[in-house]
Amino acid sequence: MEDAPLVPIGALAVSLLDIAAQAGSGRRASAKPVVHVARDARRLDELAQVLRTLAPAAEILVYPEWDCLPLDHASPSRATMGLRAAVLRRLSTDASPPDFVITTGPALAQRVPPRETWVDAHVSLAAGDRIDPEAITATLVHLGYVVDERVDEPGEVAIRGRTIEVFPADASRPSRIEHADGRVTAIRVYDPITQRSVGNAGRLVIDPATEIVLAEGSEDRLRPFTGQEHALARFYPNLVAPLDYLPDAGLVVEEGASVRAAAFFEQIDEARALRGAGKGSRNGAAGRGDDLYLSHAVWTRAVSARTIMAATHAAAEDVGLSGLAGAARPAAAFAKLLRAQLKAGRRIVLAGPSLPLRRLVREASAVADRAVRLIDS
Prior knowledge:
Blueprint lengths: L3 E2 L3 H14 L8 E8 L2 H14 L5 E4 L14 H15 L7 E5 H5 L13 E4 L6 H10 L3 E2 L8 E5 L2 E4 L8 E6 L2 E8 L6 E4 L2 E4 L42 E6 L2 H20 L19 H11 E6 H4 L13 H14 L10 H15 L9
Parallel strand pairs: 1-14, 2-4, 2-13, 3-4, 6-7, 13-14
Antiparallel strand pairs: 5-12, 7-8, 8-9, 9-10, 10-11
C-alpha cells in the first residue's frame, strides 16, 4: 500500500478522507474510525483544523496526550483531561463510530479507565429539562470541576442566582444555564474574556474535567492540582490501553511519530529512576505509576499490528509541483500546468496573498475558459 504524503498537510488530509471513505466498504479491511497518529501536538491541532475545513460534516475527535511530564508532581490541565474524557466517553457509546480520531504516540502509550467508567459520567441539559442547581453543581464537582467566582477557564463552575455558569472541560467557550421554577429556560454560550453572550445552545453536554471518576460511596477524594492523576491505577480495578476502545480501527502513522514515542518512553524511565532514588512524589501521588504506561515493546507491537499506512516525506514528493517563479516565462508555465491538471480532471485550489491571488485568478479564468470563484478573507 502506498504511503500518504506527510506534507503539505492538506494533501495528508485528503488522503485520510479517502481512507475514511473506503473504511468498512470492503475495499479496506479496517473499519471506522481512521486513527491518525501525529508526530506532535502541533501537527495534531493543524490536521484536525484542516480536516474540519475540508469535511465539515465529518466527526473528528482529537485525543491529546497529557500536558505534563510523566509521573510528575503537576496534574495535567482540566482542558486536556476534558478533551480526553469526552473522546473516551464517545467511544464507549453504542452510537455509530466517528470518522477520525487524531492522536499522538504518547497518548496511545498511556493506559486509561475502562469503558464502564463513562456510562453516567456526564451531564446533559436542554431547554425545558428539570434542573436542581445544587445537585448539578455537586455532580460537576464529582466530575472534576472547580467552583470559582469567575468562570473563564475549562473545568470551572459557578452558581449565580437563577444562572449556572459552566465551562465544559472539552469546550472552547463557557455557557450560562438559565433556569426558573426548576426548569432550564435557556442555554447561552459566552465569551470567556468579555463575558458577553455570543449564541445559544440547543443542548449542552458536560463531560468530566478529570480522568478520575470516583465510584459512588468511594472513600477517595479528588485533590485538584496535586498530581494524583499519575496514580490513576489506584482508583480503578484495572486500566486499559486506548486502542482497546478501537478494536477494529486502522492506524495512519506519521513519519517521526515512533521517534517521538521513543523519547517519551525515555522520559518515563528517567521519572521512574528518580522516584526509585527517593526523589519522586513526596505525597505518593505517583504510586503505582508503573501501571499507567504501556512498555515501549508493547506499544510498538500494538501500533505496528494496526498500521495500515504511513505518512512520509518521500510520498510528499509525488504531490509537489516544480517552482514556476524560476521559469523563463512564469505566466506561460502556470498556464501549461493549469491546462494539464484540468485535463487530468483535477479540482484546483489557488491560495496566496490577496493581490497576487487576484492576478492568478484572472489568469486561471482565461486558461480554464470559465469563471473562477474568489474567496477573499
